[in-house]
Amino acid sequence: MDLAVLVAETIRREGGIGPATFHEADSGGWTRAGITQASGGAYLDLGRSATREELDALTPQQIDEFWRRHMQQFDWIADPMRALLLDWAATSGPDDPIRALQAGLIAQGLYRDEQGRGRALDGIAGPYTRVGVMQARDQRALYNVVLGARYEQCVREALDDPVVRKFMREY
């Protein structure tokens, strides 16, 4: 998928270019187009989290540039895996989806060091992760491991929400 399309789709899914919003269940605080206070502060090089006003002051061009920078960390991987990793990283940061990818590589015996020993899941898309993805025999199985981990995370987050827990108990 073209990077411009991925950026546009992410911004759309994250609420569009409208004003910053606040949801109590969102640990990111105020967000705008999926840009949290913390990531906005980092993007603006503030040395602190951005304020609601600073998020609202982001131009559409800055929002596009933020997401382009964010997505470049996955420019080495093909779709549909790239789209899955980008979507997950948009809400959780890149370390969780990369750990899931590394777990899938371990399942295929591909996430190893020069001595053939298994590596720890570090959440960094370094050379061992990249080589493992390129060597993966079964890309569909690798994708399914990452997708399953994403579903598991979503369920855990939902069950951590008191409203969802109450609903599940009453169901």
Classification by helices and strands = mainly alpha
Q: What overall geometry do the principal axes of the alpha carbons give? A: globular
Strand order of the largest sheet: 1-2
Number of strand segments: 2
At a glance:
With 171 residues, this protein is an all-alpha fold.
Give a structural overview:
The chain is built from 9 helices and 2 strands; from the N terminus they run αββαααααααα. With 171 residues, it is an all-alpha fold. A two-stranded antiparallel sheet has the order 1-2. Strand 1 and strand 2 form a beta hairpin. Helix 1 packs across helix 4, helix 5 packs across helix 6 and helix 6 packs across helix 8. The longest helix is centred in the last third of the chain and has 22 residues. The model has no long low-confidence stretch (mean pLDDT 88).
Topology:
Blueprint lengths: L2 H11 L17 E2 L2 E2 H7 L8 H5 L3 H13 L8 H12 L2 H13 L19 H9 L3 H22 L1 H9 L1
Antiparallel strand pairs: 1-2
Helix pairs in contact: 1-4, 5-6, 5-8, 6-8
What descriptors fit this protein?
171 residues
